[in-house]
Design a protein that fits this description.
- There is one protein chain.
- The protein has about 130 residues and is an alpha+beta fold.
- Helix content is about 35%, strand content about 15%.
- The chain contains four helices and three strands, in the order H-E-E-E-H-H-H.
- A three-stranded antiparallel sheet has the order 1-2-3.
- A hairpin with a 5-residue loop joins strand 2 and strand 3.
- Helix 1 crosses helix 4, helix 2 crosses helix 3 and helix 2 packs across helix 4.
- It starts with 10 loop residues before the first helix and ends in a 6-residue tail after the last helix.
Length: about 130
């Protein structure tokens, strides 16, 4: 028997996961991250009080484009992925279903919401729908 539960995940947790991924966890497969769509209004600004790249996709309409060092798209060009509220919502759901240990680490605020590995798993779930690298 399986029991499904719903778990609310705060923007703070998502911010911490993106920070862990952008500041080291995913640097081995992400060449660069660029701010693309600017949010119309910043409803959420991370814990520093400043707007960092990881804040953009956590605000309505905001988006970041990531460029993959390892993969090419169907045209033979460097693969890129959009990270926005939609892909983040899908990514955290994939993480909860396929990688429950990492998900448990991610939502553990007392232990800093995981580490670089947890952030990397989260970002791969957002971009690739599964863990492909590492």
């Amino acid at each position: 028997m399986e029991i499904t539960i719903k778990k609310e995940v705060s923007l703070e947790i998502l911010f911490n996961l993106l920070t862990a991924a952008f500041e080291g966890g995913s640097n081995y497969w992400i060449e660069r991250a660029e701010k693309s769509k600017k949010p119309a209004k910043f409803e959420f600004v991370g814990m520093s009080g400043s707007v960092f790249i990881q804040d953009w996709p956590l605000n309505e309409g905001g988006e970041v484009t990531l460029y993959d060092t390892e993969a090419e798209d169907e045209n033979g060009k460097q693969a890129s992925y959009k990270v926005n509220l939609e892909t983040i919502q899908k990514g955290i759901q994939v993480m909860a279903e396929k990688y429950p240990k990492h998900f448990a680490d991610a939502i553990d605020l007392e232990n800093g919401c995981g580490d670089a590995d947890t952030g990397d798993v989260f970002l791969q779930c957002c971009c690739l729908g599964e863990v492909v690298y590492g």
